[in-house]
Amino acid sequence: xxxxxxxxxxxxxxxxxxxxxxxxxxxxxxxxxxxxxxxxxxxxxxxxxxxxxxxxxxxxxxxxxxxxxxxxxxxxxxxxxxxxxxxxxxxxxxxxxxxxxxxxxxxxxxxxxxxxxxxxxxxxxxxxxxxxxxxxxxxxxxxxxxxxxxxxxxxxxxxxxxxxxxxxxxxxxxxxxxxxxxxxxxxxxxxxxxxxxxxxxxxxxxxxxxxxxxxxxxxxxxxxxxxxxxxxxxxxxxxxxxxxxxxxxxxxxxxxxxxxxxxxxxxxxxxxxxxxxxxxxxxxxxxxxxxxxxxxxxxxxxxxxx
Length: 306
Hints:
Elements: H1 5-10, H2 20-29, H3 41-73, H4 88-99, H5 104-108, H6 119-125, H7 132-162, H8 167-173, H9 181-191, H10 201-207, E1 215-217, E2 220-223, H11 231-246, H12 255-258, E3 265-266, E4 281-288, E5 295-302
Antiparallel strand pairs: 1-2, 3-4, 4-5
Helix pairs in contact: 3-7, 3-9, 4-7, 8-9, 9-11
């Protein structure tokens, strides 16, 4: 049996290192240890693939930031003009820079699609001091990104093969507003397809680490922060919830976790992180969950008319 260490620690009794093994055996004999969720072997393999995929995506993002650092060191402000330095236009310019091209006019002519409308800005952003060291660093990072993307494509093929027996169940999850194919794969890999392991939806939410903690003393609730658990599943569900709110698909289980209409507005605590023109208007509100008395903050984004 795989036991939860936090649960055993909360059971009263002697906790010295000498008697730890005997104490755990005594708890198990009296049925005081709850078994943890252990998915089947097929789901465990799928979970390994989805988690490895997320790590590879993180590594690609890290190398993208390192490329941006090298460009800034060479006084190239390409990231200030292009939204994605590793997009079609940015990749063509980076490869030309690695090949030895330094003329800003020729580099700006490599723009593709809508980036052609920014030729003048690109020409000014590509005026810098590119050295042989910068070219070598850019080439190394681009080679690593190419290798990671090839591995990512191979990994996606293996994930698709592992999803073959349960593909229909994963497809049903995509009918939830905000849940993409990738999010559905992560949900199936982390939760599995056997819902009998969870008595109700509340137990599943608590297991995923999205339930506010029960921290109340003398009638005062001191904290409603969620506990640090379900890292892989929690990020996927929160991303899906924000996506459901942004597309304004109406009422759904995920969007209701983030946005609660009908509450009094208050001043936002932080600006909207995305760049847009004109800037969106934020209105934040708080509401009380009657079942858990949890304070939930709702953020609604409205874009002004052009």
